[in-house]
């Protein structure tokens, strides 16, 4: 029997909104709201090691550009609860303006830094994981000779496989059934550095 699927909400921000998201604190804050569900400025400040004033400012910036919104259910009148509006951000659209391209490059660098930090934390926690979850961890790389058509086709297949798995899974921030935990897959696909630009790459 085929698993039921759901729609994955995405945002394609313009250059101004994407530029606001290149700030590392805002990027991490948005990730927390997407993965862990609604939170207050106070709770986020504790997790990020910031004061509530700075955290509230970054939350307002995220709300202004459409990434987050006030949660419909406010448990307390004293603290404002915020939630993510989307589960995913699409940031590179071929054929855009030079400003959009430059902002996409800046955002990609900010996202990469956060992803590397997350991978490092996962590796540090590896020895403390239960054995069955240790077995789900995988680190590898593949370098394959391809045309641009073949590379795009492979990228598309990998992405569709991951999107399908996400559509069949509970939404981020939801209560998970027993035995189910959040599992992160990071996909980095790129032309091997140094070959197309004529720059000297690392030789192995």
TrEMBL record:
<protein>
    <submittedName>
        <fullName>Transcriptional regulator</fullName>
    </submittedName>
</protein>
<feature type="domain" description="HTH arsR-type">
    <location>
        <begin position="16"/>
        <end position="113"/>
    </location>
</feature>
<keyword id="KW-0804">Transcription</keyword>
<dbReference type="InterPro" id="IPR051081">
    <property type="entry name" value="HTH_MetalResp_TranReg"/>
</dbReference>
<keyword id="KW-0805">Transcription regulation</keyword>
<dbReference type="InterPro" id="IPR036388">
    <property type="entry name" value="WH-like_DNA-bd_sf"/>
</dbReference>
<dbReference type="InterPro" id="IPR001845">
    <property type="entry name" value="HTH_ArsR_DNA-bd_dom"/>
</dbReference>
<keyword id="KW-0238">DNA-binding</keyword>
<dbReference type="Pfam" id="PF12840">
    <property type="entry name" value="HTH_20"/>
</dbReference>
<dbReference type="GO" id="GO:0003677">
    <property type="term" value="F:DNA binding"/>
</dbReference>
<dbReference type="InterPro" id="IPR011991">
    <property type="entry name" value="ArsR-like_HTH"/>
</dbReference>
<dbReference type="GO" id="GO:0003700">
    <property type="term" value="F:DNA-binding transcription factor activity"/>
</dbReference>
<dbReference type="InterPro" id="IPR036390">
    <property type="entry name" value="WH_DNA-bd_sf"/>
</dbReference>
């Amino acid at each position: 029997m085929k698993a039921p699927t759901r729609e994955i909400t995405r945002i394609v921000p313009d250059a101004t909104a994407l530029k606001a998201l290149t700030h590392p604190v805002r990027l991490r804050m948005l990730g927390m709201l997407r993965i862990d569900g609604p939170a207050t400025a106070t709770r986020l400040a504790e997790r990020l090691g910031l004061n509530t004033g700075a955290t509230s400012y970054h939350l307002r910036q995220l709300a202004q550009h459409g990434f987050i919104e006030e949660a419909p259910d406010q448990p307390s009148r004293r603290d404002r609860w915020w939630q993510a509006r989307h589960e995913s951000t699409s940031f590179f659209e071929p054929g855009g303006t030079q400003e959009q391209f430059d902002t996409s490059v800046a955002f990609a660098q900010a996202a990469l830094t956060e992803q590397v930090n997350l991978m490092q934390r996962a590796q540090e926690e590896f020895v403390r994981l239960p054995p069955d979850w240790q077995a789900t961890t995988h680190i590898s790389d593949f370098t394959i000779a391809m045309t641009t058509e073949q590379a795009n086709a492979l990228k598309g297949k990998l992405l569709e496989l991951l999107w399908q798995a996400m559509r069949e899974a509970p939404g981020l921030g939801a209560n998970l059934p027993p035995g189910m935990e959040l599992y992160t897959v990071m996909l980095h696909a790129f032309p091997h550095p140094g070959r197309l630009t004529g720059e000297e790459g690392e030789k192995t």
